[in-house]
Amino acid sequence: MAPLIVLLVFTTLARAVGALGVGYVASWPAATAVGLAAMFIVTGASHFFPARRAGLIAIVPPALKHPAALVALTGVLELLGAVALLVPPEAGQLRVAAALSLAVLLFVMFPANVYASQARRSEHSPNTPLPQRTAMQCVFIAATLFVALAS
């Protein structure tokens, strides 16, 4: 639930700043990119905090090898994507590529959420019920596609 709150709060704040005349966030796609960047900084950084990291490793489906490396890789990708989302569209297509890549990453990581919902894997594992997690994941993917298609 925290990532959704971060997305909504930072998007709203960015858009409010844009309404005050700051051109960088003068549109909803730009403000949403800022909200997504904040969200992915929070979630990406959590891949490296020991307690949270252990919980994330615990929800990697057993069919996938090297769960610790996968958690580190996805954390790095989320952080890189967050930074790329902050690049203004005038500087090229980096924001669009980042948003599309993050949408794919969210889709690819979803099986871990399904696996996590089946049983509590660790005291630090995400424990959001699958219907709620699915709805949030759809919001996150929709937001990334909104930024990609409207930027």
From TrEMBL:
Keyword Transmembrane listed? The answer is yes
Keyword annotations for this protein, in alphabetical order, are:
Membrane, Transmembrane, Transmembrane helix
Naturally occurring in which organism (per UniProt): Microbacterium esteraromaticum
Superkingdom, according to UniProt?
Bacteria
Transmembrane residue ranges: 28-49, 69-88, 94-114, 134-150
- Its name, as the record gives it, is DoxX family membrane protein
